[in-house]
Amino acid sequence: xxxxxxxxxxxxxxxxxxxxxxxxxxxxxxxxxxxxxxxxxxxxxxxxxxxxxxxxxxxxxxxxxxxxxxxxxxxxxxxxxxxxxxxxxxxxxxxxxxxxxxxxxxxxxxxxxxxxxxxxxxxxxxxxxxxxxxxxxxxxxxxxxxxxxxxxxxxxxxxxxxxxxxxxxxxxxxxxxxxxxxxxxxxxxxxxxxxxxxxxxxxxxxxxxxxxxxxxxxxxxxxxxxxxxxxxxxxxxxxxxxxxxxxxxxxxxxxxxxxxxxxxxxxxxxxxxxxx
Length: 276
What we know:
There is one protein chain. The protein is of the alpha+beta class. The protein has 2 domains: about 10-145, Nucleoside Triphosphate Pyrophosphohydrolase; about 175-275, Head domain of nucleotide exchange factor GrpE (Nucleotide Exchange Factor Grpe, Chain A, domain 2, Roll), CATH 2.30.22.10. Helix content is about 35%, strand content about 30%. The chain has 5 helices and 13 strands. It has helices spanning about 50-60, 120-125, 130-175, 180-195, 205-225; strands spanning about 10-20, 25-30, 35, 40, 65-75, 85-95, 110-115, 225-230, 245, 255-260, 260-265, 265-270, 270-275. A hairpin with a 6-residue loop joins strand 2 (about 25-30) and strand 3. The chain is rod-shaped, with a radius of gyration of 41 Å.
C-alpha cells in the first residue's frame, strides 16, 4: 500500500509597500477574487524571507524596495477568498519605495487596477483576507514609532539638560572663588610693594626671607587655583583687553604699576600700566 504523502502549510511573504508620501500600494489580485491585496508570494528553497519579498515585489510590481521591518505573522487556512483550497503561513513586511510612483508594472497575477492609497482610503477598499490585518498592523507600527521617537527626543533633551547642568556646575566651580581671589590679590600686591622697598643692606635678612616665603606660598595657592599672571613688559604694545592705562598717551607700555591676572583663561584683573 502506497504511503500517503504528508502535506504542510506553505510559507508566504507579503509586502506593504509605502512610498515617499506615506501612501501604500495595493492591487486587485486575480487569485483573491479581484479583491485588493498586497504583493507577495512563495518562499523558494534556500531563500531568506527578505530576499523572497524583494524578489516577489520585483516580479509582481516591477519595483526595487527596501525592507524596513516585519509587520505581522498570520495564517490563512482554506480561506474562501483564495481561488484554491490552501493553507498559507504569512510573514508580512513593511517595505519602502523611494522611486517614481508611476513605475509600477503588475504581472498577470493582478488585474490592471492598482494605485497608491492613503491609510484611510485603503481601509475603505474591498480588501482580501489578511490585507486589512497588515494595514492595521502598520497603523500600530506608526503609533509605536511616534511614541518611540517622542521618547527618544525626551531622552535626548534630558541628556542635553544633564550636559548643560554639568557644564554650568563646572563653570560655577571655576569662577565661584573669584571674589575670594580678588580679595587675596591686594595682599599679594602689598607683599610685592613691601619687598620692592627693602633696603639693600637688609635684603638677605631673616625677616625679608620670611616675607618672600609667604609671598611664594600665596602665589602657589593662586596657581593651584588656575590663577595665572598676565605677562607684561615695558615696551609691549598696549592692549586694552589685558591692560588698563592709568596715565599717558601712546601705544606702548612705559611702566607696569600693578600686575594683572587670569582665572581659567578669563581676565580676572587687567594689568595697570603707564603708556607712552
